[in-house]
Specification:
Length: about 270
């Protein structure tokens, strides 16, 4: 599609430092839009419910950003450890993140932050579930523009073809638009969470519902993903992301009924 959204000419006296143009990349642009939207939602909800200061919200997002980068790169390393041991610089590029790595590193970061700041953990996790959907939705749009997380070759009516050499997807090849599948799935999950929010039966329900819904949807979308370099747990049968999805779904299901049943026994 369009990995470079637009370019801004640099004044002549600054060309020696920055070149002729300042480039706005699509992926980064949509990530920023998602982050701003996510911060705004957390600020609104946490201020309304828990009177959380904006400074603490900024601190939370900074910690989550660090955890997401570390986690995304850590899981990327374990997909091809031999390669990255020989090419460690490949981990330092702006490309290549594993969403599940980011997610699983941010969860304990949130738990520690909430407990340290004496915030109710489960209600805050419910807020973060919707926030994650918002940020992730824009992130997948950025993926579509950049060509990463692309699908397998497909000549169907909804196939997409990348022609820009700057894209990360194979060029001039019709493919499943898996990034848009993911964005659509996340949008549906967001709507479902907003409906659940109005009829919430226990704290933590939104967060655990998000984990189960995303894990189930991600397992299906993986079938159409074409970036096979991520590897398989069982060759050509279960990918790393599908395996992690199974574990996440089962863990979330366990805690869902555990918390739900605990609430019943205490009411």
């Amino acid at each position: 599609m369009h990995p470079e959204l637009f370019k801004i000419p640099i004044p002549n006296f600054l060309e020696g430092l920055f070149g002729e143009y300042f480039t706005i990349y699509s992926y980064g642009f949509f990530i920023v839009i998602g982050a701003i939207s996510g911060v705004s939602y957390v600020a609104y909800e946490s201020k309304k419910s828990f009177n959380l200061s904006f400074d603490k919200i900024n601190t939370l997002f900074l910690l989550l950003l660090i955890a997401a980068i570390v986690g995304g790169k850590a899981f990327l390393f374990f997909e091809k450890p031999a390669y990255y041991l020989d090419h460690p610089s490949a981990l330092l590029t702006g490309n290549g993140f594993v969403f599940y790595g980011s997610l699983l590193f941010t969860i304990p970061t949130m738990l520690i932050f909430f407990k340290k700041n004496k915030l109710p953990v489960l209600p805050m996790l419910d807020i973060m579930a919707i926030t994650t959907c918002i940020v992730h939705f824009f992130g997948r749009i950025g993926c579509f523009m950049a060509g990463c997380c692309h699908g397998i070759e497909w000549h169907g009516p909804l196939s997409v073809i990348y022609s820009d050499p700057a894209c990360q997807a194979p060029l001039h090849t019709p493919m499943h638009p898996t990034q848009l599948y993911s964005a659509s799935m996340i949008l549906v999950i967001l709507v479902v969470l907003l409906v659940i929010k109005k009829h919430k039966r226990f704290n933590g329900q939104l967060f655990l519902s998000y984990l189960m819904l995303y894990a189930a949807g991600r397992s299906i979308i993986e079938i159409f993903r074409g970036d096979i370099s991520r590897g398989y747990v069982i060759d050509n049968f279960i990918s790393h992301s599908q395996f992690i999805s199974i574990l996440v779904f089962l863990a979330a299901l366990f805690f869902y009924f555990k918390i739900k049943n605990y609430k019943k026994t205490t009411t």
